[in-house]
Amino acid sequence: MKEFLIAKPEEIKSGLNTDAYFLRTEEVLEGIGKNPNVVMELFTKSFPDENYQFGVLLGIYEVAKLLEGLPVDVYAMDEGEIFFPYEPVLQIRGKYKDFARYETTILGFLSFMSGIATKSARVRIAAKDKKIYSFGTRRQHPFLSPVVEYCTYVSGFDGVSNVLGAKYIFKTPVGTMPHALILIIGDEKEAFLAFDQYVDPKIPRIALIDTYGSPTVGALNALEVLKEKLAGVRIDSKDYAYLIKDIRWEFARRGYPNIQIFLSGGLDEYEVEKFYEYADAFGVGTRVANAPVIDFALKIVEVDGNPVAKAGNMPGAKQVQRGNGFNDTIRLFNSELLPEKKPLLKPLIKEGQIVRDFEEIDSIRKRVLNGLNSLPENLKIIKGGKVYIPEFLP
Questions:
Q1: Can you list the residues of the chain whose pLDDT is less than 70?
Q2: Distance in angstroms (rounded) separating the CA atoms of residues 94 and 307
Q3: Rounded CA gap, 309 and 112, in Å?
């Protein structure tokens, strides 16, 4: 084997990244001479965690690039839009055989990216006004580093650690030192001094203080050698969070009350909420990079203009109409707009041509943050909230 086990873009675009039964379906339809016009909609009936109350949609631009050039029309919510169960977030119109084999990839893009985005948004809510950083790409296939960092950043994280991932989103990667540096040098004070001597002065001096024994001792070692240069300290284990108050006390009584304390190591939105009062910033990795996917399904709702659907699904092409305060109504696609509501499914592709401009990353991030800030308070509860189900009015 001479190459990494990764799919090439041209292989994905050609439709080879599919499940075999779609190719079998193509064979059957070819054999019987049938290729009807269909409408397919992508939606979820539930979220991966009972405490989830909303989803954040990402992957729309990937789908646009995938389907570009095919004889289809596509409607979609905006990249970064907030959605709820049963709402179609994407709609494809065309002859079924012309795009059937792309279902696997469409689901992969949207389920994976929206899963990370939704988890990241929940961490953002839990962290409130405090900084959060993405540390999790080591828990995913390296092929996915750019998409993981894109999803975390646009969904509210303040920075990302992966160098390649940061490059793809036009940001500077964050991070200072690992335990390995301190262990190799063999002494905390020497390691902190060496970092200060050789690393670009623009990088904040944030010392990792839990390599040897007590983080409180490590914090005082960092302060002793770096003094006013010390911007912060990082504890890489939530097991030591109880020591943060002690460390703050020691810093304050020595005249350095403004040194920040960063907490990382196995955190998620529940622990960020739990430790909010203790730390100034959080590094969140595994639980976000390995977030559960959104269980989207892509289902036929019309065949040759006739409303049809699998049992348990709602037949007919639909539109999501949103009013103020996320007051959503699901209606048949051609139903009139209700007063003071706007349609969320908007043209993405017309006859194979992309008709929507791709936004800058920070514009998408702004949409997500504005959406999170606008959510009613009952939809911002991290644990124990009630899932919102939109109104149905054909």
A1: 1
A2: 15
A3: 25
Homologous superfamily of 128-136+155-289: Aldolase class I (3.20.20.70)
Q: Is CATH 3.20.140.10 correct for 19-117+292-392?
A: yes
Q: Specify whether the CB–CB gap between 63 and 74 falls below 8 A.
A: yes
pLDDT of residue 2: 74
Which residue's structure tokens are 């994905």?
12
Query: By three-state DSSP, how is residue 367 classified?
Result: helix
Work out the percent of the chain whose per-residue pLDDT is above 90: 96
Domain range summary for the chain, segments of one domain joined by +: 19-117+292-392, 128-136+155-289
- Look up residue 139 and give its amino acid: R
Cα(379)–Cα(357) distance, integer angstroms: 30
DSSP string of 134-164, one letter each residue? E--GGGS-GGGHHHHHHHHHHTT-SEE--HH
pLDDT reported for residue 240 = 86
Q: What is the pTM of this model?
A: 0.96
Predicted local distance difference test score (pLDDT) of residue 387: 85
pLDDT of residue 213: 86
Residue 129 and residue 126: Cα distance in Å, rounded? 9
Alpha helices (H) in the chain, listed in sequence order? 9-14, 20-32, 60-67, 96-99, 103-127, 145-154, 163-168, 179-185, 188-198, 215-226, 244-253, 269-274, 286-289, 361-374
The answer to whether 255 and 248 are in contact (CB under 8 A) is no
- Tokens of residue 328, six digits: 């959503």
pLDDT at site 1: 63
